[in-house]
UniProtKB/TrEMBL annotation:
SUPFAM superfamilies in the record: Alkaline phosphatase-like
GO molecular function, one term: metal ion binding
InterPro entries: Alkaline_phosphatase_core_sf, Alkaline_phosphatase_prok, Phosphodiest/P_Trfase
Signal peptide location: 1-23
Entry keywords, A to Z: Metal-binding, Phosphoprotein, Signal
PANTHER family reported for this sequence: BIS(5'-ADENOSYL)-TRIPHOSPHATASE, ECTONUCLEOTIDE PYROPHOSPHATASE/PHOSPHODIESTERASE
Annotated protein name in UniProt: Type I phosphodiesterase / nucleotide pyrophosphatase
Catalytic residues (UniProt): 78
Length: 548
């Protein structure tokens, strides 16, 4: 039988159309990545009885929780966490070696998202000179752009520049972040030439100013049984206060603290939720062609500011999580309405956890301590001067790494190996230090394998100090008996994070196997049927993928 050409091509067209219809790739309309800055894994349960059914508990009750998710590198800081979550990679490869790091070749300090070649948009200040330039690998958001021929829309947003920029990746439509001085949301010329009209309108509403009124507890203060009593001494005070106690008159505090004050209150998260909803609505996220997934990366940073200032066991921290829970509920309800329940995929995780205040821990009779970084550096340089007759051989103790002054070493033809041996010997004897390693010789160091691997993963030769030191559990760098807290170490309180997924393609369940932060990006990539980020070292979590 012979067919004419037209008949064949019509047949081909039908075949093509039906093929197209049958093989359309199955993807959610929208992915919402939620990073809660400084959220320890145990906060999912610590306050669970008071979470609503629509926020954290909705994620746990409807979604799938990886209960043993750990950070596989050191140090555990914000910029690294956001980079690793979205790249599946580690500082050794993705290059974000700290919030700040030191370019070893020049000794120049670099902020993670610093980019002097771009200009602020919506600001003339330095806060706008930011881009993802220092991030050396692609993100899962970049891969989504590549996979859909740039038809997917990608947005990143956070109070912190690094919390919005690094997750959004290099190909994002935009990242937005908050400028404390003006109270405005801004961006940079890396993304655009002017702020979208809807954002200009939002900024004109002065929402941050309106939130800064009064901070009282959401529930009667005596019901905050998970926290030390109000007014405990382990916190840092807001500027202008000598004692911290509810209720806080934020309107009055604004005078001394500026609009940036909102960061250190739960209302910074509410403001972030507001802007996330604005982006969803005004950029029509989740309304793309079938198979073309959009991506919104949201990072809630106020939990970190409040955590640093008030520490975990406080009413301020508890109230901040109870309020964030309500913000999440509102965000999820909005997504149900706009994108449709089951049409979007949410994952929630954290960039790191947080320690208890060392003085608090000591008062409870636990082992804890403050590592006097500045004094140790001074003593170390004095010791090196004795041996090598030169000042300032050590440039800095940053990110729990000893950074050498290579200019001095080279100009004076000193033996770098001798210097490093001397430093290792010295640092081993310092109070609070567990381990020290010359990173070129870490293979020989007698350090437990799990810590050693995290040191290697975190060590970027061009941007990290040549010698790493590990402190004892519940120790961190800080002034003796100082209030507040921080993070950065390998301990579970800093390195154990939530990783919960909900929505499209996710069935309810729980996984108790050990997974890592580096597994998040490949898991999302697998769910979306897109290539993994180009520096990825993680694995898709099988328990999540097999849910489908
Ligand atoms: Zn922090």
């Amino acid at each position: 039988m012979k067919f004419n050409k037209t008949f064949l091509s019509v047949l081909g067209l039908f075949a093509g159309l039906s093929l197209y219809a049958q093989q359309e790739v199955s993807r959610p309309k929208l992915v919402v990545g939620v990073v809660v800055d400084q959220m320890r894994w145990d906060y999912l349960y610590r306050y669970q009885d008071r979470y609503s059914s629509g926020g954290f508990n909705r994620m746990l009750n409807e979604g799938f929780s990886n209960e043993n998710t750990y950070i596989p590198y050191l140090p555990t800081y914000t910029a690294i966490g956001h980079s690793t979550i979205y790249t599946g990679s580690v500082p050794a490869i993705h290059g974000i070696a700290g919030n700040d790091f030191i370019i070893q070749a020049t000794g120049k300090e670099m902020y993670c998202t610093q980019d002097d070649a771009v200009n602020g948009i919506g600001t003339t200040g330095k806060a706008g000179k930011m881009s993802p330039k220092n991030l050396l690998t692609s993100t899962v958001t970049d891969q989504l752009k590549l996979a859909t021929n740039f038809r997917s829309k990608v947005f990143g947003v956070s109070l912190k520049d690094r919390g919005g920029i690094l997750p959004a990746g290099h190909f994002a439509d935009a990242a937005f972040w908050f400028e404390g001085e003006s109270g405005n949301w801004i961006s940079s010329s890396f993304y655009m030439n002017e702020l979208p009209k809807w954002l200009q309108k939002f900024n004109d509403k002065k929402v941050a100013e309106k939130y800064l009124d009064k901070w009282n507890t959401l529930y009667p203060i005596e019901t905050y049984v998970q926290s030390e009593k109000d007014g405990n001494p382990y916190r840092e005070n807001y500027k202008g206060l000598t004692k911290s106690q509810f209720p806080y008159d934020l309107k009055a505090l604004k005078k001394d603290n500026g609009l940036g004050l909102i960061r250190s209150t739960p209302f910074g998260n509410s403001l972030t939720k507001d802007i996330a909803i604005e982006i969803i609505d005004n950029e029509n996220l989740g309304q793309n062609q079938a198979g073309v997934t959009d991506f919104l990366a949201v990072s809630f940073s106020s939990t970190d500011y409040v955590g640093h200032q008030f520490t975990p066991n406080t009413i301020e921290a508890e109230d901040t999580y109870l309020r964030l829970d309500k913000d999440l509920e509102e965000l999820f309800n909005h997504l149900d309405k706009k994108v449709g329940k089951g049409n979007y995929l949410v994952f929630l995780t954290a960039d790191h956890g947080g320690a208890h205040n060392p003085k608090y821990f000591q008062d409870k009779k636990g082992n804890a301590g403050y590592f006097p970084t500045g004094e140790v550096k001074k003593a170390l340089n004095a010791k090196l001067k004795e041996e090598f007759k030169l000042d300032d051989i050590v440039r800095s103790l940053t990110n729990y790494q000893v950074h050498l002054n290579y200019q001095t070493i080279e100009q004076n033809k000193l033996d770098e190996e001798d210097i490093k041996d001397e430093i290792v010997k010295f640092m081993r004897k310092v109070d609070g230090v567990s381990f020290v390693a010359d990173m070129d010789k870490i293979g020989e160091a007698s350090i437990p394998a799990i810590i050693k691997e995290r040191m290697i993963n975190g060590y970027n030769k061009k941007r990290s100090g040549a010698i790493n030191y590990i402190l004892e559990p519940q120790w961190y760098g800080g002034k003796q008996n100082s209030g507040g807290t921080t993070h950065g170490t390998w301990g579970s309180y800093d390195a154990h994070i939530p990783f919960v997924l909900m929505g499209w393609g996710i069935k309810h369940g729980q996984n108790n196997n050990r997974v890592y932060m580096t597994d998040i990006a490949p898991t999302i990539s697998a769910l979306l049927h897109i290539e993994e980020p180009n520096g990825n070292i993680g694995q898709p979590v099988q328990e999540v993928i097999n849910q489908k």
